[in-house]
């Protein structure tokens, strides 16, 4: 078979690292297992560090120039002119983004017709892929490491039924296992908004609405499609699987990243993960350049290991308006307790700058100099706060921590659950609120923190004192025997799950034609 006729698997994922990297882990597993496929991965140029890992597994990395997130004003104090400018700027980026997505998919499927076995995988932030799959007549699979991060407006069904009665009937009366209203209301509803409709008709020459005839705009009664395959990357032990979900939704287990992807230090990677692309820690010591981090983790008394604090991409989204106030909250907690914190500051330069500023005005004791000998680590506040601007696998770090304070991202949540440690969650947007409530419900976290109790916006003493008191209370609750025991119990329950392996198994069963699977097995 000619190279041009190899089946093609296109993985398209947009958003933050937590939105994109788990999908890349599935793409890597698929490329290793199905070597006859030409596998491509489309994502933001900002995730270019992922490129070398993908290309090492013969996956074509296709970057688009648009940013993963747009920082917005979160306090509401934005002028009308600024709001108009932001809206126009967002619209321009959206147009460019869709143009680049179309160009990327055209380069894959535009030169020759699609063949059996071709498919496109998308996450919830790459719905361009759904429309492009329709354009080039290939199957589309949806994957997500979290529950749907948005829900339809309360009036959506009523308005849909009123404005599109025939299409509503089409979804209400499908044959078994065909696309139906459950699919629409669960995740597909944004595809029926005017925003997508104008792009479909103006740029793709499709009907404005999916599942309608491009000439008559009537429902395609004669051409029913199966319910789209939807894979979720979380555990059934953690997330309930209700009856109203679509019939073709599958819960795989958490999608953990290969160890190889999680290091900012090459030496540490070579020591801890000599076997690339495993999710398990091989050894326990960091390199000599990061001996200070290792020492900080081991010097703490066994009765109170360090508490991890990490907010991932929340800063770049505009939620940490006053990094100095955030650091002062941590300082007050440390002064009133026997805790120690390890803070990850990677990915948000203003926070790192605030850390450096405090370090610059601190007394340069001998011990401080000892602990700030490398560019990744800075020790503050009487040696109780270690600020780390690099990255290290959570699977290595979290078992050495007493608890973690985080924003409720799916990756942090999963890693802490696997490590069996309590969590303190401060959600900011989308699925983070679900995870915060769910972790409290299953007993591994206290009630969620409000954002002003972790990242106050002002350097006001009263605000900082109030936040520090709330954070201290939450940590005390998280470290109670009941929550610690429950966290250990959950870890044992999910320890045997293989989320990536299950996702791969389902793709092979549901998407890869059996004749291609035989060819792949023969060639590999």
From TrEMBL:
Residues 390-446 form the Erythromycin biosynthesis protein CIII-like C-terminal domain. It comes from the Eukaryota. Gene3D superfamilies: Glycogen Phosphorylase B (3.40.50.2000). Transmembrane segments: none annotated. GO terms for molecular function: hexosyltransferase activity; UDP-glycosyltransferase activity. PROSITE patterns: PROKAR_LIPOPROTEIN. This is Sterol 3-beta-glucosyltransferase UGT80B1 isoform X1. It comes from Elaeis guineensis var. tenera. InterPro entries: EryCIII-like_C, Glycosyltransferase_28, UDP_glucos_trans. Keywords: Transferase.
